[in-house]
Amino acid sequence: MNKVVLITGATSGIGLACARKFAENGDKLILTGRNESRLAEIRDELKAHGTEVLTVAFDVRDREKAREFLEGLPEQWKQIDVLVNNAGLALGLEPEYEGDMNDWDAMIDTNIKGLLTMTRLVVPAMVERGQGHIINIGSVAGDAAYAGGNVYCATKAAVKALSDGLRIDVANTGIRVTNLKPGLVETNFSNIRFHGDTDRAANVYKGIKPLTGDDIADVAVYAANAPAHVQIAEVLILATHQASGSVIVRK
Ligand code: NDP
Ligand code: 8X3
Known about the structure:
By secondary structure, this protein is α/β, with parallel strands linked by helices. It has helices spanning 13-24, 36-48, 63-71, 101-129, 150-169, 189-193, 198-204, 213-225; strands at 4-7, 28-33, 53-57, 82-85, 132-137, 175-182, 234-237. The N and C termini lie far apart (45 Å). 39% of the residues are buried.
């Protein structure tokens, strides 16, 4: 059955790949992000292939805008089957005692509080219907800290705890909760992390074949299409030459 899939951070990387893969799967998409013109381009691309798409630009840190967006959804879009909590970022790679406090706020407010806001606003209707699926994009970074990862790793450890907590809270419903934990995925992630230093960003993926957004989207679509009694609770997805957040073999 075709699902309504809401993806946050669908303008780039993993979120965009999820949009394209869920579209190929025949689903209806609600795509969000802050970059309105990019959202419009993606909407046009997917509509040209016959996908029903609704795009809404807002910052997941803005709770009022998030609430307005959900309350203002047209009737035929109100029943959200799958929420992909993907919007997120890393900023900086400094030791914890030298980190930029504004960067900390942006990561914590987006990766933890933004994800929580979306969950809080979307899940009650799923509980009422007794079905739904929340796919959180966590990270290998949430399993163990790596050098300079400190606050980013903490936000992804929080995504793990929030996924596990939500899974307990909805275990008496038909709702499923998945925590997808990618390792190195080549997206705009490192450009953002290094504040536009593209050379430094490119170095992150040097000497190793990294994952792509499509690799992660394949798993998201698989989890969403598993039979109703199957809950893909957590998946760690690594490049073959990556063994953990800090063990990466480059050739
Ligand atoms: P990208 O930078 O390519 O994409 C990030 C997306 O998040 C963009 O669409 C961006 O949209 C959106 N976003 C960021 N901040 C906000 C905000 N405040 N409000 C709304 N949307 C926002 O990176 P990735 O695709 O790699 O990252 C996606 C997720 O995957 C993140 O949660 C990241 O932590 C996680 N991840 C990434 C890995 C990697 O190696 N790349 C590995 C493990 C996890 P816009 O700018 O339009 O707002
Ligand atoms: C993104 C992957 O290893 O750069 O979460 O933190 S990593």
